[in-house]
Amino acid sequence: MFNGNIVGNIDVASIAFWAFVLFFIGLIYYLRREDRREGFPLEDDLTGRSLGMGGPLLHAAPKTFKLPFGRGTVSTPTIGKEPFEIAGRRVSPFPGAPYVPTGNPLTDCIGPAAYAERSRLPDIDAFGNNRIVPMALEPSFSIARGDPDPRGMTVIGADGAVAGTVAEIWVDRSEHQVRYLEVVTAEGVHALAPMMMAKIRKSARQIVVDAINAAQFSGCPQVETPGQISRYEEDKISGYFGGGYLYANRARQEPLI
Question: What is residue 27's DSSP assignment?
């Protein structure tokens, strides 16, 4: 007979447990749908055949995001296959086999020289200003007292030859550090070399960039607009110099033993 004692007739611990189980199942279901907004549908590694999204219950409907500072919108997941041809051939016909470059590996977006199709607009700070700029455009920046000024120093490539001279420094307004060294080659090409790949020899007034050879500085990806660099151009430059640690010369591609 019901005596009016509600709590005494309900197993609160059991209700809490099953509520958590149902919530957790729902959370996993939601996250598995959301994480398919990028990188799907999967493709067969050998044939390129699409493996599908796994049914309507396993992928979420497209969602549109508003970009800050009036830069439009972006929707995910994208519809259809993104056109891209790999400038390389497989060394063996099995999944996961490495590719051998068939063109210029430093610019063909392959292996360590790969880059992403990022925005063609420059990265901006919290105030809407271009984040990475030449130091000449940011008078509040200066070289710290006691530190060597790279401008005017000679740049040496991985082969020990002279690549050019540093004409300008590109700084990051948000993180207050040097991002690129603008190197002018003998041919008059302006190449942006990542600062993290440079080693300064203060006494010799030299900067060694061992990622690529001296002659390869002239082939470095260029910025379209003087005084600013887009996110896409950042990735291409990083890929060019990063790929040099494998592709700059033949000896780097061979086994150590």
Answer: H
Query: Where on the phi/psi map is residue 148: left (φ > 0), alpha (ψ -120 to 50), or beta?
Result: beta
What is the C-alpha separation between 185 and 218, in angstroms, rounded? Answer: 7
Tokens of 190: 């302006």
In the chain, domain spans: 1-83, 104-253
| Signed CA dihedral, 131, 136, 139, 141: sign only | positive
Domain 104-253 part of CATH 3.30.365.10: no
pLDDT in tens, 147-166: 999 999 999 999 999 999 99
The highest-level CATH class for domain 1-83 is few secondary structures
Number of H helices, E strands in the chain: 2, 11
**Length reported for the chain:** 257
The pTM assigned to this predicted structure is 0.82
